Amino acid sequence: MAPVTPPTSAGRPAADEVYDRFIREHLQAARLGPGFVKGVVKRFRSGPTLLCSKAIGQWLNRRLRQAGWTQQDLAGRIGVDRSAVAYWIRGGSITLDNLSAVLLEFEAQWAELPIPARQELAVAAYLAALPYAREHLAPKTPAKVLDREAFWALYHLFAEPHWERAVREQDPELLHREAARVRAGVKMSLGTEPAGALDVSALRQLVREWGAAWLVCVGQLPTRWAVQ
Prior knowledge:
The chain is mainly α. It has helices at 17-30, 34-67, 71-78, 82-89, 96-105, 118-137, 148-158, 162-169, 172-190, 200-220. The protein has ten helices and no strands. Helix 6 (118-137) packs across helix 10.
């Protein structure tokens, strides 16, 4: 059995070397160049920004209600169009100078801003990058998004070499044990029972749909973005 690159020590998604070899060959065959890698990294970095913007938009909407102000009221106070305020509330990005003006108008502190936890930012980064990678690796398949439960299922499935060995050896007992391990890991990461079945059949389908994209992302993305 190939040695394992464990993700749990640093909390970074990973895969054992059997899968690493597979994806290197897949990338070479698919002729995915630097533009593809740049696209993956760009979306990886945009995910946390979008998550922060959404959280700030919700906070801004709540503060408007508390103050009894309309969007136009705030827009007039800080010198922007009402459409800009509406955009921020919907989760659009806000510049630092506009955000500073908003805080001053509400007599709020920077510490009040609901910046998501680091782990949530890291997960959002992967959730933004994975669909892009999947789309380019399998351009003829329907576009899909990946939810947090499926993300954690992939994380725990690829964290150990046992699933690959069970599939290769066609070992039903080991596959069922692995499905139980993955489900327990997802429950731990989510803090609640998974909504999906996450049985052997469901995990096989998840790997078919997202396995290649996962392996590409963990091989190309920053190593310090721990999620666990």
